[in-house]
User: What shape does this take?
Amino acid sequence: MPEPKSIILDWGTSSLRAALVSETGETLDTRDTTSGGIQFVKDGAFEAALMETVGAWFDAHGAIPVLASGMITSRNGWIEVPYVDAPAGLAELAAGTRQITLANGAIVTFLPGMRDPAAQPFPDVMRGEETQIVGFGLDKNRTLVLPGTHSKWARVENGRIAGFQTYATGEIFALLTKHSFIAKASEPAPGSEPRWEAFDRGAGFAASDARAADAFLSAVFSARTGVLAGVLAPDDIGDYVSGLVIGSEFRQARAAGWLKPGEAIGIVGNNVLNSRYSRVAPLFDLDIEPGPTDAAKGGVQLIAGQLQLTNEG
Amino acid sequence: MPEPKSIILDWGTSSLRAALVSETGETLDTRDTTSGGIQFVKDGAFEAALMETVGAWFDAHGAIPVLASGMITSRNGWIEVPYVDAPAGLAELAAGTRQITLANGAIVTFLPGMRDPAAQPFPDVMRGEETQIVGFGLDKNRTLVLPGTHSKWARVENGRIAGFQTYATGEIFALLTKHSFIAKASEPAPGSEPRWEAFDRGAGFAASDARAADAFLSAVFSARTGVLAGVLAPDDIGDYVSGLVIGSEFRQARAAGWLKPGEAIGIVGNNVLNSRYSRVAPLFDLDIEPGPTDAAKGGVQLIAGQLQLTNEG
Assistant: This one.
Protein backbone atom coordinates (compact mmCIF):
# COMPACT_ATOMS: atom_id res chain seq x y z
CA MET A 1 0.00 0.00 0.00
CA PRO A 2 1.31 3.50 -0.84
CA GLU A 3 2.16 5.58 2.22
CA PRO A 4 -0.65 7.83 3.55
CA LYS A 5 0.41 11.47 3.23
CA SER A 6 -2.63 13.56 4.08
CA ILE A 7 -6.25 13.60 5.16
CA ILE A 8 -8.80 15.46 3.04
CA LEU A 9 -12.05 16.59 4.70
CA ASP A 10 -15.28 17.55 2.99
CA TRP A 11 -16.90 18.91 6.14
CA GLY A 12 -20.43 20.18 5.79
CA THR A 13 -23.47 21.08 7.83
CA SER A 14 -24.94 17.60 7.87
CA SER A 15 -21.93 15.31 7.47
CA LEU A 16 -18.17 14.92 7.69
CA ARG A 17 -16.50 12.96 4.92
CA ALA A 18 -12.83 12.12 5.30
CA ALA A 19 -10.35 10.52 2.88
CA LEU A 20 -6.88 9.20 3.64
CA VAL A 21 -4.76 9.82 0.55
CA SER A 22 -1.30 9.02 -0.75
CA GLU A 23 1.18 11.51 -2.17
CA THR A 24 -0.10 10.78 -5.67
CA GLY A 25 -3.69 11.35 -4.64
CA GLU A 26 -4.78 7.75 -4.34
CA THR A 27 -7.58 7.28 -1.81
CA LEU A 28 -6.49 4.64 0.69
CA ASP A 29 -9.37 4.73 3.15
CA THR A 30 -12.52 6.76 3.84
CA ARG A 31 -14.78 7.68 6.76
CA ASP A 32 -18.24 9.13 6.33
CA THR A 33 -20.20 10.21 9.39
CA THR A 34 -23.25 12.32 10.02
CA SER A 35 -22.44 12.74 13.73
CA GLY A 36 -19.54 14.98 12.70
CA GLY A 37 -21.81 17.30 10.70
CA ILE A 38 -21.43 20.89 11.91
CA GLN A 39 -24.99 21.09 13.12
CA PHE A 40 -24.41 18.14 15.47
CA VAL A 41 -21.16 19.39 17.01
CA LYS A 42 -21.84 21.08 20.36
CA ASP A 43 -19.95 23.99 21.93
CA GLY A 44 -17.37 24.21 19.16
CA ALA A 45 -15.95 20.76 19.96
CA PHE A 46 -14.70 20.34 16.38
CA GLU A 47 -11.31 18.89 17.30
CA ALA A 48 -12.97 16.14 19.34
CA ALA A 49 -15.35 15.40 16.46
CA LEU A 50 -12.41 15.21 14.07
CA MET A 51 -10.42 12.90 16.35
CA GLU A 52 -13.41 10.62 16.77
CA THR A 53 -13.61 10.24 13.01
CA VAL A 54 -9.95 10.05 11.95
CA GLY A 55 -8.02 9.57 15.24
CA ALA A 56 -7.13 6.01 14.25
CA TRP A 57 -5.42 7.29 11.09
CA PHE A 58 -3.22 9.62 13.17
CA ASP A 59 -2.38 6.73 15.51
CA ALA A 60 -1.33 4.57 12.58
CA HIS A 61 0.39 7.12 10.34
CA GLY A 62 1.50 10.01 12.58
CA ALA A 63 0.42 13.64 12.62
CA ILE A 64 -0.08 13.92 8.84
CA PRO A 65 -1.54 17.19 7.46
CA VAL A 66 -5.29 17.73 7.16
CA LEU A 67 -6.93 19.74 4.36
CA ALA A 68 -10.48 20.92 5.05
CA SER A 69 -13.13 22.57 2.92
CA GLY A 70 -16.89 23.03 3.07
CA MET A 71 -19.12 24.85 5.54
CA ILE A 72 -16.55 24.10 8.27
CA THR A 73 -14.85 27.28 7.00
CA SER A 74 -18.00 29.40 7.37
CA ARG A 75 -19.27 31.52 10.23
CA ASN A 76 -20.94 28.48 11.79
CA GLY A 77 -17.88 26.26 11.36
CA TRP A 78 -14.57 25.80 13.14
CA ILE A 79 -12.92 28.96 11.88
CA GLU A 80 -14.36 31.45 9.42
CA VAL A 81 -12.10 31.78 6.39
CA PRO A 82 -12.73 35.02 4.44
CA TYR A 83 -13.78 34.71 0.79
CA VAL A 84 -11.07 35.31 -1.81
CA ASP A 85 -12.20 37.79 -4.46
CA ALA A 86 -12.35 36.92 -8.17
CA PRO A 87 -10.32 36.91 -10.27
CA ALA A 88 -8.26 34.35 -8.35
CA GLY A 89 -6.01 31.40 -9.20
CA LEU A 90 -3.91 28.94 -7.28
CA ALA A 91 -1.70 31.61 -5.69
CA GLU A 92 -4.61 33.68 -4.38
CA LEU A 93 -6.53 30.65 -3.11
CA ALA A 94 -3.44 29.26 -1.35
CA ALA A 95 -2.77 32.67 0.21
CA GLY A 96 -6.35 32.72 1.48
CA THR A 97 -6.04 29.51 3.51
CA ARG A 98 -5.99 29.51 7.32
CA GLN A 99 -4.15 26.99 9.49
CA ILE A 100 -4.38 25.66 13.03
CA THR A 101 -2.32 23.06 14.84
CA LEU A 102 -4.03 20.18 16.62
CA ALA A 103 -3.00 18.91 20.07
CA ASN A 104 -1.17 16.03 18.38
CA GLY A 105 0.86 18.45 16.26
CA ALA A 106 -0.96 17.88 12.96
CA ILE A 107 -1.65 21.02 10.91
CA VAL A 108 -5.18 21.58 9.60
CA THR A 109 -5.40 23.82 6.53
CA PHE A 110 -8.80 25.39 5.85
CA LEU A 111 -9.44 26.36 2.23
CA PRO A 112 -11.24 29.63 1.44
CA GLY A 113 -14.41 30.14 -0.61
CA MET A 114 -14.66 32.70 -3.40
CA ARG A 115 -16.58 35.92 -3.93
CA ASP A 116 -17.27 37.69 -7.22
CA PRO A 117 -17.54 41.40 -6.42
CA ALA A 118 -18.62 42.18 -10.01
CA ALA A 119 -21.76 40.01 -9.86
CA GLN A 120 -25.16 41.72 -10.20
CA PRO A 121 -27.06 42.87 -8.19
CA PHE A 122 -24.82 41.83 -5.25
CA PRO A 123 -21.44 40.08 -4.97
CA ASP A 124 -21.91 36.34 -5.53
CA VAL A 125 -20.32 33.67 -3.33
CA MET A 126 -19.33 30.01 -3.43
CA ARG A 127 -17.63 27.69 -0.99
CA GLY A 128 -16.15 24.46 -2.36
CA GLU A 129 -16.93 24.89 -6.05
CA GLU A 130 -13.75 26.98 -6.59
CA THR A 131 -11.73 23.98 -5.43
CA GLN A 132 -13.53 21.74 -7.94
CA ILE A 133 -12.80 24.27 -10.68
CA VAL A 134 -9.10 24.21 -9.78
CA GLY A 135 -9.19 20.41 -9.91
CA PHE A 136 -10.92 20.48 -13.30
CA GLY A 137 -8.08 22.63 -14.60
CA LEU A 138 -7.07 26.27 -14.90
CA ASP A 139 -4.80 25.51 -17.87
CA LYS A 140 -7.02 26.98 -20.59
CA ASN A 141 -9.68 29.62 -21.00
CA ARG A 142 -13.14 28.08 -20.82
CA THR A 143 -16.61 28.17 -19.33
CA LEU A 144 -17.58 25.65 -16.69
CA VAL A 145 -20.89 24.70 -15.15
CA LEU A 146 -21.18 23.00 -11.76
CA PRO A 147 -24.68 21.50 -11.47
CA GLY A 148 -26.31 21.47 -8.05
CA THR A 149 -28.91 22.94 -5.74
CA HIS A 150 -27.20 26.25 -6.44
CA SER A 151 -25.45 25.69 -9.77
CA LYS A 152 -22.46 27.82 -10.68
CA TRP A 153 -21.41 29.08 -14.10
CA ALA A 154 -17.78 30.13 -14.04
CA ARG A 155 -15.24 31.49 -16.47
CA VAL A 156 -11.57 30.48 -16.38
CA GLU A 157 -9.21 32.99 -18.00
CA ASN A 158 -5.43 33.26 -17.93
CA GLY A 159 -5.05 30.57 -15.29
CA ARG A 160 -7.55 32.15 -12.88
CA ILE A 161 -11.25 31.98 -12.09
CA ALA A 162 -12.33 35.27 -13.64
CA GLY A 163 -15.91 35.34 -12.37
CA PHE A 164 -18.96 33.22 -11.65
CA GLN A 165 -22.73 33.34 -11.20
CA THR A 166 -25.08 31.22 -9.10
CA TYR A 167 -28.31 29.74 -10.52
CA ALA A 168 -30.74 28.40 -7.91
CA THR A 169 -31.99 25.80 -10.37
CA GLY A 170 -31.95 22.77 -8.08
CA GLU A 171 -33.75 24.62 -5.34
CA ILE A 172 -36.44 25.96 -7.70
CA PHE A 173 -36.90 22.41 -9.04
CA ALA A 174 -37.40 21.09 -5.51
CA LEU A 175 -39.84 23.89 -4.61
CA LEU A 176 -41.91 23.32 -7.74
CA THR A 177 -42.08 19.53 -7.53
CA LYS A 178 -42.52 19.27 -3.74
CA HIS A 179 -44.53 22.31 -2.70
CA SER A 180 -46.26 23.93 -5.69
CA PHE A 181 -49.82 23.62 -6.97
CA ILE A 182 -48.75 23.74 -10.59
CA ALA A 183 -46.03 21.11 -10.72
CA LYS A 184 -46.22 18.86 -7.68
CA ALA A 185 -44.71 15.56 -8.79
CA SER A 186 -44.81 12.03 -7.50
CA GLU A 187 -41.55 10.59 -6.19
CA PRO A 188 -40.02 8.35 -8.87
CA ALA A 189 -39.78 4.68 -7.87
CA PRO A 190 -36.31 3.90 -6.46
CA GLY A 191 -33.94 2.89 -9.24
CA SER A 192 -36.34 3.83 -12.00
CA GLU A 193 -35.00 5.42 -15.19
CA PRO A 194 -35.76 9.10 -15.78
CA ARG A 195 -38.63 9.65 -18.20
CA TRP A 196 -36.35 11.07 -20.86
CA GLU A 197 -39.13 11.91 -23.30
CA ALA A 198 -40.71 14.23 -20.74
CA PHE A 199 -37.31 15.65 -19.80
CA ASP A 200 -36.49 16.34 -23.45
CA ARG A 201 -39.85 18.03 -23.98
CA GLY A 202 -39.17 20.48 -21.15
CA ALA A 203 -35.56 21.11 -22.19
CA GLY A 204 -36.58 21.38 -25.82
CA PHE A 205 -39.07 24.14 -25.09
CA ALA A 206 -36.44 26.03 -23.06
CA ALA A 207 -34.03 25.77 -26.00
CA SER A 208 -36.62 26.68 -28.64
CA ASP A 209 -37.10 29.89 -30.61
CA ALA A 210 -40.40 30.59 -28.83
CA ARG A 211 -40.37 34.02 -27.21
CA ALA A 212 -42.46 32.54 -24.40
CA ALA A 213 -39.39 30.51 -23.38
CA ASP A 214 -37.82 33.80 -22.21
CA ALA A 215 -40.66 34.07 -19.68
CA PHE A 216 -39.60 31.60 -16.99
CA LEU A 217 -42.45 32.57 -14.64
CA SER A 218 -44.85 31.58 -17.41
CA ALA A 219 -42.95 28.52 -18.62
CA VAL A 220 -43.29 26.83 -15.22
CA PHE A 221 -47.08 27.02 -15.56
CA SER A 222 -46.74 24.67 -18.55
CA ALA A 223 -46.34 21.74 -16.16
CA ARG A 224 -50.01 22.30 -15.43
CA THR A 225 -51.26 23.21 -18.90
CA GLY A 226 -49.39 20.22 -20.33
CA VAL A 227 -51.41 17.90 -18.11
CA LEU A 228 -54.66 19.75 -18.93
CA ALA A 229 -53.83 19.43 -22.64
CA GLY A 230 -53.31 15.68 -22.22
CA VAL A 231 -49.68 15.90 -23.42
CA LEU A 232 -48.06 15.20 -20.05
CA ALA A 233 -49.00 12.25 -17.85
CA PRO A 234 -48.92 12.91 -14.10
CA ASP A 235 -45.81 10.71 -13.84
CA ASP A 236 -44.07 12.90 -16.43
CA ILE A 237 -44.21 16.08 -14.35
CA GLY A 238 -40.98 15.62 -12.37
CA ASP A 239 -38.78 14.97 -15.38
CA TYR A 240 -40.59 17.53 -17.53
CA VAL A 241 -39.90 20.21 -14.90
CA SER A 242 -36.30 18.97 -14.56
CA GLY A 243 -35.74 19.44 -18.29
CA LEU A 244 -37.52 22.78 -18.25
CA VAL A 245 -35.52 24.30 -15.38
CA ILE A 246 -32.13 22.98 -16.52
CA GLY A 247 -32.87 24.11 -20.08
CA SER A 248 -33.94 27.49 -18.71
CA GLU A 249 -30.67 27.71 -16.78
CA PHE A 250 -28.74 27.30 -20.06
CA ARG A 251 -31.03 29.80 -21.82
CA GLN A 252 -30.57 32.36 -19.05
CA ALA A 253 -26.81 31.73 -18.83
CA ARG A 254 -26.69 32.47 -22.57
CA ALA A 255 -28.66 35.70 -22.05
CA ALA A 256 -26.32 36.67 -19.22
CA GLY A 257 -23.26 36.11 -21.41
CA TRP A 258 -21.84 32.86 -19.98
CA LEU A 259 -22.05 30.76 -23.11
CA LYS A 260 -22.02 31.15 -26.86
CA PRO A 261 -23.28 28.61 -29.41
CA GLY A 262 -20.42 26.61 -30.89
CA GLU A 263 -18.26 26.72 -27.75
CA ALA A 264 -17.27 23.85 -25.51
CA ILE A 265 -18.08 23.82 -21.81
CA GLY A 266 -16.85 21.70 -18.94
CA ILE A 267 -19.42 20.06 -16.67
CA VAL A 268 -17.68 19.73 -13.34
CA GLY A 269 -18.23 17.02 -10.75
CA ASN A 270 -19.76 13.59 -10.79
CA ASN A 271 -23.14 14.67 -9.54
CA VAL A 272 -26.13 12.63 -10.75
CA LEU A 273 -27.28 15.86 -12.35
CA ASN A 274 -24.38 15.85 -14.78
CA SER A 275 -26.03 13.38 -17.14
CA ARG A 276 -28.99 15.74 -17.34
CA TYR A 277 -26.77 18.76 -18.05
CA SER A 278 -24.85 16.75 -20.66
CA ARG A 279 -28.13 16.00 -22.38
CA VAL A 280 -29.13 19.66 -22.50
CA ALA A 281 -25.79 21.12 -23.70
CA PRO A 282 -26.16 20.01 -27.35
CA LEU A 283 -29.58 21.71 -27.53
CA PHE A 284 -27.67 24.97 -27.07
CA ASP A 285 -25.04 23.94 -29.63
CA LEU A 286 -22.40 23.32 -26.97
CA ASP A 287 -19.72 20.65 -26.99
CA ILE A 288 -18.75 19.03 -23.70
CA GLU A 289 -15.15 18.91 -22.57
CA PRO A 290 -14.27 15.83 -20.55
CA GLY A 291 -12.81 16.39 -17.08
CA PRO A 292 -11.56 14.42 -14.08
CA THR A 293 -14.11 12.43 -12.08
CA ASP A 294 -12.82 13.70 -8.73
CA ALA A 295 -12.13 17.35 -9.38
CA ALA A 296 -12.66 18.27 -5.72
CA LYS A 297 -9.85 16.09 -4.40
CA GLY A 298 -7.54 17.20 -7.20
CA GLY A 299 -8.26 20.83 -6.41
CA VAL A 300 -7.55 20.43 -2.72
CA GLN A 301 -4.19 18.83 -3.48
CA LEU A 302 -3.23 21.49 -6.00
CA ILE A 303 -4.01 24.30 -3.55
CA ALA A 304 -2.14 22.48 -0.76
CA GLY A 305 0.82 21.92 -3.09
CA GLN A 306 0.86 25.61 -3.97
CA LEU A 307 0.77 26.50 -0.28
CA GLN A 308 3.75 24.25 0.39
CA LEU A 309 5.67 25.84 -2.49
CA THR A 310 4.90 29.29 -1.11
CA ASN A 311 5.94 28.35 2.42
CA GLU A 312 9.15 26.79 1.18
CA GLY A 313 9.91 29.65 -1.20
CA MET B 1 -83.97 50.16 -1.86
CA PRO B 2 -83.69 49.32 -5.58
CA GLU B 3 -85.33 46.05 -6.56
CA PRO B 4 -83.06 42.94 -6.46
CA LYS B 5 -82.77 41.52 -9.98
CA SER B 6 -80.09 38.82 -9.84
CA ILE B 7 -77.67 36.88 -7.67
CA ILE B 8 -74.02 36.79 -8.65
CA LEU B 9 -71.85 33.94 -7.33
CA ASP B 10 -68.07 33.81 -7.12
CA TRP B 11 -67.93 30.12 -6.25
CA GLY B 12 -64.51 28.69 -5.64
CA THR B 13 -62.77 25.72 -4.11
CA SER B 14 -62.53 27.15 -0.62
CA SER B 15 -65.46 29.59 -0.44
CA LEU B 16 -68.76 30.71 -1.91
CA ARG B 17 -69.31 34.46 -2.19
CA ALA B 18 -72.76 35.69 -3.19
CA ALA B 19 -74.02 39.17 -4.04
CA LEU B 20 -77.61 40.31 -4.43
CA VAL B 21 -77.64 43.02 -7.10
CA SER B 22 -80.06 45.50 -8.66
CA GLU B 23 -80.69 45.98 -12.36
CA THR B 24 -78.09 48.75 -12.44
CA GLY B 25 -75.49 46.57 -10.73
CA GLU B 26 -75.76 47.98 -7.25
CA THR B 27 -74.88 45.44 -4.57
CA LEU B 28 -77.77 45.24 -2.13
CA ASP B 29 -76.58 42.42 0.13
CA THR B 30 -73.79 39.84 0.35
CA ARG B 31 -73.11 36.39 1.79
CA ASP B 32 -69.66 34.92 2.20
CA THR B 33 -69.27 31.36 3.43
CA THR B 34 -66.49 28.84 3.50
CA SER B 35 -68.87 25.92 4.14
CA GLY B 36 -70.12 26.34 0.56
CA GLY B 37 -66.61 25.98 -0.88
CA ILE B 38 -66.51 23.20 -3.47
CA GLN B 39 -64.14 21.09 -1.44
CA PHE B 40 -66.62 21.02 1.46
CA VAL B 41 -69.69 20.10 -0.57
CA LYS B 42 -70.32 16.35 -0.31
CA ASP B 43 -71.83 14.08 -2.97
CA GLY B 44 -72.52 16.87 -5.42
CA ALA B 45 -75.06 18.53 -3.13
CA PHE B 46 -74.43 21.93 -4.71
CA GLU B 47 -78.07 22.97 -4.91
CA ALA B 48 -78.50 22.40 -1.17
CA ALA B 49 -75.32 24.37 -0.49
CA LEU B 50 -76.60 27.21 -2.63
CA MET B 51 -80.01 27.27 -0.98
CA GLU B 52 -78.41 27.30 2.45
CA THR B 53 -76.49 30.43 1.48
CA VAL B 54 -79.01 32.43 -0.56
CA GLY B 55 -82.35 30.67 0.07
CA ALA B 56 -83.59 33.64 2.09
CA TRP B 57 -83.07 35.91 -0.92
CA PHE B 58 -85.27 33.67 -3.09
CA ASP B 59 -87.89 33.64 -0.34
CA ALA B 60 -87.90 37.43 -0.22
CA HIS B 61 -87.50 38.28 -3.92
CA GLY B 62 -88.69 35.30 -5.91
CA ALA B 63 -86.82 32.97 -8.25
CA ILE B 64 -84.48 35.63 -9.61
CA PRO B 65 -81.69 34.51 -11.97
CA VAL B 66 -78.32 33.35 -10.68
CA LEU B 67 -74.99 33.96 -12.48
CA ALA B 68 -72.10 31.75 -11.39
CA SER B 69 -68.40 31.76 -12.18
CA GLY B 70 -65.26 30.30 -10.64
CA MET B 71 -64.15 26.72 -10.07
CA ILE B 72 -67.83 25.73 -9.74
CA THR B 73 -67.70 25.48 -13.56
CA SER B 74 -64.70 23.12 -13.53
CA ARG B 75 -64.50 19.34 -13.53
CA ASN B 76 -64.76 19.29 -9.74
CA GLY B 77 -67.66 21.72 -9.67
CA TRP B 78 -71.39 21.52 -10.28
CA ILE B 79 -71.24 21.29 -14.04
CA GLU B 80 -68.13 21.45 -16.20
CA VAL B 81 -68.39 24.30 -18.69
CA PRO B 82 -65.98 23.89 -21.63
CA TYR B 83 -63.38 26.61 -22.20
CA VAL B 84 -64.12 29.12 -24.96
CA ASP B 85 -61.15 29.52 -27.31
CA ALA B 86 -59.43 32.85 -27.88
CA PRO B 87 -60.03 35.12 -29.67
CA ALA B 88 -63.40 35.59 -27.98
CA GLY B 89 -65.65 38.52 -27.08
CA LEU B 90 -69.04 38.97 -25.49
CA ALA B 91 -70.89 36.92 -28.12
CA GLU B 92 -68.58 33.90 -27.82
CA LEU B 93 -68.52 34.01 -24.02
CA ALA B 94 -72.32 34.27 -23.83
CA ALA B 95 -72.68 31.39 -26.28
CA GLY B 96 -70.38 29.32 -24.06
CA THR B 97 -72.56 29.57 -20.95
CA ARG B 98 -74.52 26.60 -19.57
CA GLN B 99 -77.81 26.80 -17.70
CA ILE B 100 -79.76 24.68 -15.25
CA THR B 101 -83.08 25.28 -13.54
CA LEU B 102 -83.36 24.95 -9.76
CA ALA B 103 -86.27 23.24 -8.00
CA ASN B 104 -87.72 26.69 -7.25
CA GLY B 105 -87.67 27.61 -10.94
CA ALA B 106 -84.69 29.97 -10.80
CA ILE B 107 -82.24 29.68 -13.68
CA VAL B 108 -78.54 29.35 -12.87
CA THR B 109 -76.20 30.48 -15.67
CA PHE B 110 -72.63 29.17 -15.47
CA LEU B 111 -70.01 31.29 -17.24
CA PRO B 112 -67.23 29.62 -19.22
CA GLY B 113 -63.47 30.00 -18.80
CA MET B 114 -61.15 30.72 -21.72
CA ARG B 115 -58.39 28.84 -23.48
CA ASP B 116 -55.66 30.27 -25.71
CA PRO B 117 -54.76 27.55 -28.20
CA ALA B 118 -51.86 29.62 -29.57
CA ALA B 119 -50.00 29.76 -26.24
CA GLN B 120 -46.55 28.10 -26.00
CA PRO B 121 -45.70 25.36 -25.21
CA PHE B 122 -49.30 24.26 -24.48
CA PRO B 123 -52.69 25.98 -24.69
CA ASP B 124 -53.10 28.31 -21.72
CA VAL B 125 -56.27 28.50 -19.61
CA MET B 126 -58.07 30.86 -17.26
CA ARG B 127 -61.35 30.71 -15.38
CA GLY B 128 -62.78 33.95 -14.08
CA GLU B 129 -60.19 36.41 -15.36
CA GLU B 130 -61.92 36.63 -18.78
CA THR B 131 -65.01 37.94 -17.00
CA GLN B 132 -62.93 40.61 -15.25
CA ILE B 133 -61.42 41.60 -18.60
CA VAL B 134 -64.93 41.99 -20.07
CA GLY B 135 -65.86 44.15 -17.09
CA PHE B 136 -62.73 46.28 -17.52
CA GLY B 137 -63.79 46.92 -21.10
CA LEU B 138 -63.41 45.48 -24.58
CA ASP B 139 -64.00 48.89 -26.20
CA LYS B 140 -60.40 49.57 -27.22
CA ASN B 141 -57.26 47.70 -28.11
CA ARG B 142 -54.96 47.38 -25.11
CA THR B 143 -52.87 45.15 -22.90
CA LEU B 144 -54.13 44.16 -19.47
CA VAL B 145 -52.46 42.51 -16.52
CA LEU B 146 -54.43 40.70 -13.81
CA PRO B 147 -52.17 40.26 -10.77
CA GLY B 148 -52.55 37.11 -8.69
CA THR B 149 -51.18 33.74 -7.71
CA HIS B 150 -51.27 32.98 -11.42
CA SER B 151 -51.17 36.42 -13.06
CA LYS B 152 -52.53 36.84 -16.57
CA TRP B 153 -51.30 39.15 -19.31
CA ALA B 154 -54.00 39.59 -21.95
CA ARG B 155 -54.46 41.50 -25.17
CA VAL B 156 -57.79 43.04 -26.19
CA GLU B 157 -58.17 43.62 -29.91
CA ASN B 158 -61.21 44.52 -31.99
CA GLY B 159 -63.61 44.02 -29.11
CA ARG B 160 -62.35 40.57 -28.25
CA ILE B 161 -59.77 38.95 -25.97
CA ALA B 162 -57.16 38.07 -28.58
CA GLY B 163 -54.84 35.99 -26.40
CA PHE B 164 -53.33 35.68 -22.94
CA GLN B 165 -50.47 34.16 -20.97
CA THR B 166 -50.21 32.98 -17.36
CA TYR B 167 -47.30 33.97 -15.09
CA ALA B 168 -47.03 31.94 -11.87
CA THR B 169 -45.52 34.94 -10.09
CA GLY B 170 -47.58 34.79 -6.90
CA GLU B 171 -46.96 31.09 -6.48
CA ILE B 172 -43.20 31.45 -7.02
CA PHE B 173 -43.18 34.29 -4.48
CA ALA B 174 -44.93 32.09 -1.92
CA LEU B 175 -42.57 29.14 -2.58
CA LEU B 176 -39.49 31.31 -2.21
CA THR B 177 -40.55 33.15 0.92
CA LYS B 178 -42.17 30.19 2.70
CA HIS B 179 -40.15 27.13 1.70
CA SER B 180 -36.78 28.10 0.21
CA PHE B 181 -33.33 28.24 1.79
CA ILE B 182 -32.35 31.34 -0.14
CA ALA B 183 -35.28 33.67 0.51
CA LYS B 184 -37.29 32.45 3.47
CA ALA B 185 -38.93 35.55 4.92
CA SER B 186 -40.53 36.42 8.21
CA GLU B 187 -44.27 37.11 8.19
CA PRO B 188 -44.82 40.88 8.22
CA ALA B 189 -46.57 42.15 11.34
CA PRO B 190 -50.34 42.48 10.74
CA GLY B 191 -51.17 45.90 9.35
CA SER B 192 -47.53 46.88 8.82
CA GLU B 193 -46.56 48.92 5.75
CA PRO B 194 -44.58 47.17 3.02
CA ARG B 195 -40.86 47.94 3.15
CA TRP B 196 -40.98 49.92 -0.08
CA GLU B 197 -37.26 50.59 -0.22
CA ALA B 198 -36.57 46.84 -0.33
CA PHE B 199 -39.41 46.32 -2.83
CA ASP B 200 -38.04 49.06 -5.09
CA ARG B 201 -34.55 47.59 -4.91
CA GLY B 202 -35.82 44.22 -6.16
CA ALA B 203 -38.05 45.75 -8.83
CA GLY B 204 -35.30 48.17 -9.86
CA PHE B 205 -32.86 45.35 -10.52
CA ALA B 206 -35.47 43.49 -12.60
CA ALA B 207 -36.03 46.65 -14.66
CA SER B 208 -32.33 47.47 -15.03
CA ASP B 209 -30.03 47.12 -18.02
CA ALA B 210 -28.04 44.38 -16.27
CA ARG B 211 -27.88 41.25 -18.40
CA ALA B 212 -28.01 39.24 -15.17
CA ALA B 213 -31.60 40.43 -14.76
CA ASP B 214 -32.52 38.18 -17.71
CA ALA B 215 -31.40 35.23 -15.58
CA PHE B 216 -34.33 34.76 -13.20
CA LEU B 217 -32.89 31.56 -11.70
CA SER B 218 -29.85 33.57 -10.71
CA ALA B 219 -31.67 36.75 -9.69
CA VAL B 220 -33.60 34.90 -6.97
CA PHE B 221 -30.29 33.97 -5.34
CA SER B 222 -29.73 37.69 -4.74
CA ALA B 223 -32.12 37.52 -1.77
CA ARG B 224 -29.34 35.57 -0.09
CA THR B 225 -26.31 37.43 -1.43
CA GLY B 226 -27.99 40.75 -0.54
CA VAL B 227 -28.13 39.67 3.09
CA LEU B 228 -24.54 38.37 2.98
CA ALA B 229 -23.45 41.69 1.47
CA GLY B 230 -25.17 43.55 4.32
CA VAL B 231 -27.46 45.43 1.90
CA LEU B 232 -30.67 43.63 2.85
CA ALA B 233 -31.87 43.24 6.43
CA PRO B 234 -33.61 39.94 7.23
CA ASP B 235 -36.92 41.86 7.48
CA ASP B 236 -36.40 43.21 3.95
CA ILE B 237 -36.40 39.80 2.27
CA GLY B 238 -40.16 39.43 1.72
CA ASP B 239 -40.63 42.80 0.05
CA TYR B 240 -37.33 42.56 -1.84
CA VAL B 241 -38.43 39.23 -3.34
CA SER B 242 -41.89 40.68 -4.05
CA GLY B 243 -40.34 43.53 -6.05
CA LEU B 244 -37.94 41.17 -7.77
CA VAL B 245 -40.57 38.66 -8.93
CA ILE B 246 -43.15 41.27 -10.00
CA GLY B 247 -40.43 43.23 -11.79
CA SER B 248 -39.27 40.01 -13.44
CA GLU B 249 -42.84 39.31 -14.55
CA PHE B 250 -42.87 42.68 -16.38
CA ARG B 251 -39.41 42.04 -17.84
CA GLN B 252 -40.43 38.60 -19.08
CA ALA B 253 -43.77 39.86 -20.38
CA ARG B 254 -41.80 42.44 -22.38
CA ALA B 255 -39.50 39.71 -23.75
CA ALA B 256 -42.55 37.62 -24.66
CA GLY B 257 -44.10 40.54 -26.54
CA TRP B 258 -46.93 41.61 -24.21
CA LEU B 259 -45.78 45.14 -23.56
CA LYS B 260 -43.82 47.90 -25.23
CA PRO B 261 -42.24 50.91 -23.51
CA GLY B 262 -44.42 54.01 -23.89
CA GLU B 263 -47.72 52.10 -23.95
CA ALA B 264 -50.49 52.19 -21.39
CA ILE B 265 -51.68 49.04 -19.63
CA GLY B 266 -54.71 48.30 -17.53
CA ILE B 267 -54.23 46.65 -14.14
CA VAL B 268 -57.43 44.73 -13.54
CA GLY B 269 -59.08 44.00 -10.21
CA ASN B 270 -58.81 45.41 -6.73
CA ASN B 271 -56.36 42.86 -5.47
CA VAL B 272 -53.92 44.08 -2.80
CA LEU B 273 -51.24 43.25 -5.33
CA ASN B 274 -52.40 46.02 -7.63
CA SER B 275 -50.59 48.74 -5.74
CA ARG B 276 -47.39 46.78 -6.18
CA TYR B 277 -47.97 46.33 -9.92
CA SER B 278 -48.80 50.04 -10.25
CA ARG B 279 -45.49 50.85 -8.63
CA VAL B 280 -43.55 48.65 -11.05
CA ALA B 281 -45.23 49.76 -14.31
CA PRO B 282 -43.43 53.14 -14.56
CA LEU B 283 -40.05 51.36 -14.25
CA PHE B 284 -40.92 49.78 -17.61
CA ASP B 285 -42.06 53.11 -19.04
CA LEU B 286 -45.72 52.12 -18.94
CA ASP B 287 -48.67 54.36 -18.18
CA ILE B 288 -51.57 52.94 -16.21
CA GLU B 289 -55.13 53.16 -17.49
CA PRO B 290 -57.71 53.49 -14.78
CA GLY B 291 -60.48 50.90 -14.71
CA PRO B 292 -63.56 49.99 -12.70
CA THR B 293 -63.03 48.77 -9.14
CA ASP B 294 -65.39 45.80 -9.54
CA ALA B 295 -64.60 44.53 -13.01
CA ALA B 296 -65.71 40.99 -12.15
CA LYS B 297 -69.31 41.99 -11.36
CA GLY B 298 -69.46 44.24 -14.39
CA GLY B 299 -68.25 41.42 -16.61
CA VAL B 300 -70.80 38.94 -15.30
CA GLN B 301 -73.60 41.40 -15.98
CA LEU B 302 -72.37 42.22 -19.48
CA ILE B 303 -72.17 38.53 -20.42
CA ALA B 304 -75.61 37.87 -18.88
CA GLY B 305 -77.03 40.87 -20.76
CA GLN B 306 -75.57 39.58 -24.02
CA LEU B 307 -77.07 36.16 -23.32
CA GLN B 308 -80.49 37.73 -22.79
CA LEU B 309 -80.17 39.67 -26.05
CA THR B 310 -79.25 36.48 -27.86
CA ASN B 311 -82.10 34.51 -26.35
CA GLU B 312 -84.57 37.29 -27.16
CA GLY B 313 -83.15 37.76 -30.66
Q: What stands out?
A: Residues 199 and 240 of chain A are 4 Å apart (CA to CA). Chain A touches chain B through 52 residues (CB under 8 Å).
